[in-house]
Amino acid sequence: MDWDDLRVFLAVARAESLSRAGKVLRRDAATVGRRVAKLEGDLGQPLFTKSPQGYALTEAGSRLLSHAERAEQAVLSGADELTGQSGQLSGQVRIGATDGCASYILPQVCTAIQKEHPELELQIVALPRVINLSKREADMAITVSPPQAGRITVQKVTDYHLHLAAAREYLDRAPPLTSLDDLHAHPIVGYIQDMIFYPELDFLTGMGIEKVALASNLVSVQLGMVRQGGGIGVTHDFILPFAPNLRRVLTDEVSVTRSFYLIRHEGDARVERFTRVAEELTRGIRDEVARLEAMA
């Protein structure tokens, strides 16, 4: 069994599809299928159960998965050791994040990191749901809700703050707004309730607000609605510098604090590229949140 066989196996195990694995490997699905069949023949047992829904690991496949992941980490670690003698990082690192962090924090932070390491390729994956590290949707992720299970490490990065905000033009023509009770006379902008994947993002339930006039699963879309005078929404303080026509309201009655966490594969601590990017990413996010919040 060679490393290339394991690479194919890992890609299919994570993608649960020959075609999706082929895209990752840059090979056609038929070639990937032949490699899987050959590996199964060499081992004398099936590694996947095939169905119209895709490829699912058998018990033997599940046992091989942990060994294949350790081999992958050893290869990555060895490559980093050979190429990292100059102190410069190279290779690809994919970072998953909630859309608020991905849109308003990571562009500045990742650009600064890449300028320091020109051979480094940083990719930002913005998803309005939980990033699946076990399927290598990302090498590391910034989340607002630390996972409680899995072979991962969790590190708190920083707190951030949110307040109610509205467009100044909206407030000039809107009904009075002096207390939480007054919110019922205003249209509210927020998340689509059944598409909130993190309980930490369910801001409005605690305020007793059940009806949302304008909703989206994306922070950037909610911000656009508020900026257009669509109503009042819970807005990140670090986003306010990007929306100068917004003004915070009811700050004495509503102030929300949440946290960003960095999650990583447990075994990636041995890969210098991932470890150093994680260190610079953590420091950069902490500094950028503080800088933007000070401008709010």
UniProtKB/TrEMBL annotation:
Transcription listed as a keyword: yes
InterPro entries: LysR-type_TF_proteobact-type, LysR_HTH_N, LysR_subst-bd, WH-like_DNA-bd_sf, WH_DNA-bd_sf
Domain HTH lysR-type: 1-58
Coiled-coil regions listed: none
One of the GO biological process terms: DNA-templated transcription
Residue ranges crossing the lipid bilayer per the database entry: none
Keywords linked to the UniProt accession: DNA-binding, Transcription, Transcription regulation
Gene Ontology MF annotations: DNA-binding transcription factor activity; sequence-specific DNA binding
Family annotation (Gene3D superfamilies): 3.40.190.290, Winged helix-like DNA-binding domain superfamily/Winged helix DNA-binding domain
Family per record: Belongs to the LysR transcriptional regulatory family.
PANTHER family the UniProt entry points to: HTH-TYPE TRANSCRIPTIONAL REGULATOR, TRANSCRIPTIONAL REGULATORY PROTEIN
Full protein name: Transcriptional regulator, LysR family
Organism of this sequence: Aliiroseovarius sediminilitoris
